[in-house]
Write a structure and sequence with these properties.
- The protein contains 10 helices and 13 strands.
- By secondary structure, the chain is α+β, with helices and mostly antiparallel strands.
- It has a single domain, classed as Arylamine N-acetyltransferase fold (2-Layer Sandwich).
- A hairpin with a 2-residue loop joins strand 10 and strand 11.
- The radius of gyration is 18 Å and the shape is globular.
- The N terminus is likely disordered.
- Belongs to the arylamine N-acetyltransferase family.
């Protein structure tokens, strides 16, 4: 693995930004402004699904280069998870003139102990983005699946910030920060992170871990999420949850892998060819 990592950390071809913009359906301005940043985040989330088919099929996600991510998510009409989603967006934003830093986080979402949960690995990537001429810093995250930020938020602790879906805020915990979101009338922590940019090698190690560890949720079960008509469409195994802002949630239970696969291909728009017998693997993890 060392040789492979060394090779991928060498100078990398730039992302084909025109192809990326076409993939996400962004036909507006590409001037590096805050308005453009909002538009890119929205377009990305509504066109590139969060999904874990590669780890589920036993394919490690080790190459996070612009070339590899562009080939998979732009050219092959696939999605990806955090290291891929935020990695792809980071390459695009840098090419467009934004300053981008990659941070890593420890996920505590849906853990009963919340912020007091036992320490977890740094298995999530998020971005801090600067707009030219603007002194503010913005937290951007298109890679947290079912509860990902649907808009950039200012990196200002304590400030409640509304997104097109839920309100979010950044909290302080010792020398670290945490992101939390308001679900109903309860603030729920999402992840804990340090304001410390991470080099590419740290991101590659994290991605290798979550795509190969035998207990990883991405290895043992199917996950897919997307923003569709403003709603969160969150799939886990045979179970689909649809969350529309301000409305009661909707839940669907699929009877078999064929129905799940149809959703992935026809609604999420995924090309699942060339990675093995996806139907059989989904059948095995319908209830995982």
């Amino acid at each position: 693995m060392v040789g492979m990592v060394t090779q991928t950390l060498r100078s990398q071809p730039a992302l084909d930004v025109a192809a990326y913009l076409a993939r996400i359906g962004h036909a507006g301005s590409v001037e590096p402004t805050l308005a453009t940043l909002h538009g890119l985040v929205t377009a990305h989330l509504t066109h590139i699904p969060f999904e874990n088919l590669d780890p589920l099929m036993g394919i490690p996600v080790a190459d996070l280069s612009a070339e590899a991510l562009g080939a998979k998510m732009v050219q092959r009409a696939r999605g990806g998870y955090c290291f891929e989603q935020n990695g792809l967006l980071a390459y695009a934003l840098e090419e467009l003139g934004y300053a981008v830093e990659s941070l890593t986080a420890r996920v505590v979402w849906m853990r009963p102990e919340g912020l007091d949960a036992p320490t977890t690995p740094l298995t999530h990537q998020l971005l801090v983005v600067r707009v030219p001429g603007d002194p503010r810093r913005f937290l951007v995250d298109v890679g947290f699946g079912g509860q990902t930020l649907t808009a950039p938020i200012e990196f200002v602790p304590g400030l409640v910030q509304q997104t097109p879906n839920e309100p979010y805020r950044i909290g302080v915990r010792g020398d670290e920060y945490f992101l939390e979101t308001l679900i109903g009338d309860v603030w729920q922590p999402v992840y804990i992170f340090a304001d410390s940019p991470r080099p590419a090698i740290d991101l590659q190690v994290g991605s290798w871990y979550v795509s190969t560890h035998p207990a990883s949720i991405f290895v043992v079960g199917l996950t897919a999420s997307m923003i569709i008509d403003g709603a969160r469409w969150n799939l886990r195994g045979r179970h689909l949850a649809i969350h529309r802002p301000g409305e009661p949630g909707e839940r669907v239970r699929f009877e078999n892998a064929s129905q799940v696969l149809a959703l992935l291909m026809n609604t999420y728009g995924l090309d699942v060819g060339g990675i093995g017998d996806v139907h059989q693997r989904i059948t095995e993890v319908l209830d995982s």
